[in-house]
Amino acid sequence: xIEVLSPAKINLFLHITGRRPDGYHTLQTVFQLLDWGDTMxxxxxxEPGVVLKHPMPGVAESNNLILRAAALLLESYGGSESGAVxxxxxxxxxGGGLGGGSSxxxxxxxxxxxxxxxxxxxxxxxEIGLRLGADVPVFVRGYSAWAEGLGExxxxxxxxxxxxxxxxxxxxxxxxxxxxxxxxxxNTKPITMxxxxxxxxxxxxxxxxxxxxxxxxxxxxxxxxxAPAMMTGSGACVFAGFDSExxxxxxxxxxxxxxxxxxxxGINESPVLRx
Length: 275
Ligand SMILES: C[C@](O)(CO)[C@H](O)COP(=O)(O)OP(=O)(O)OC[C@H]1O[C@@H](n2ccc(N)nc2=O)[C@H](O)[C@@H]1O
Ligand SMILES: Nc1ncnc2c1ncn2[C@@H]1O[C@H](COP(=O)(O)OP(=O)(O)OP(=O)(O)O)[C@@H](O)[C@H]1O
Fold this sequence. Notes:
The protein is an alpha+beta fold.
């Protein structure tokens, strides 16, 4: 049995630099992995086929990125006799911009590759991952990273130790809806990695989400009182970074009653690298 934490990410900034003819957007971002995620367990199964031990509320099996990842892996590398049972303790909110579904897909690709001894390389798994979603490759490679393209051109980064307050507004934002919004900024001038820490950065998706989701707006207003706060991915979660755990916890304690928060640590390497 393989048991591993399928981690969350936050986007420390996110610039949209263009739109491709196929409608997808090119971006620049920094993915910061977190020591917070879903626990996943992979066990061999005597019969062929991959099954989830428990249904996942709100996600149809045909849509579930875990099963879709397993099916793509089998299609490309597997034998018809491969079988597995997958169990997941879901902690990451859906539609939160934390990449939970993408992380689960990546963890599945890596764990089943090992469980079934398929011998696919990390690059091959990242390529399969990109077919499932733009956020999957970073979780397959398993390093906090500077990213370009759709998020699949990755340069690992060693980020300074930091604690984050992540606030989870009661809203589920559809990524596609935000990317298709006419008011979205799509022409941010590309920056260089060396200019990153000196320059002004932001999340280009944030203004569109803030305009339509008051829960996200309120969360940002609250957290901005304590530290520079930003939305992650296409929302709904927002975060702020702190040098000390104590400061982060003090800020989180002050959250409005209807706003859930977690205090989590940034990590440079994903637990999936230890599979
Ligand atoms: C916002 C981010 O989370 C930042 O890390 C990602 O760019 C989104 O990654 P994701 O959730 O894996 O998104 P996907 O499942 O690949 O895409 C969902 C939808 O968002 C739009 N989309 C997504 C990524 C991208 N670079 N350009 C887009 O226009 C497309 O309409 C796509 O159909
Ligand atoms: N295993 C899964 N876990 C979570 N969501 C899943 C899963 N499989 C499919 N989904 C679908 O994917 C959608 C997005 O979920 P996810 O948790 O990845 O959101 P997100 O954090 O906004 O992602 P991103 O940061 O990549 O935009 C969900 O609304 C759900 O319908």
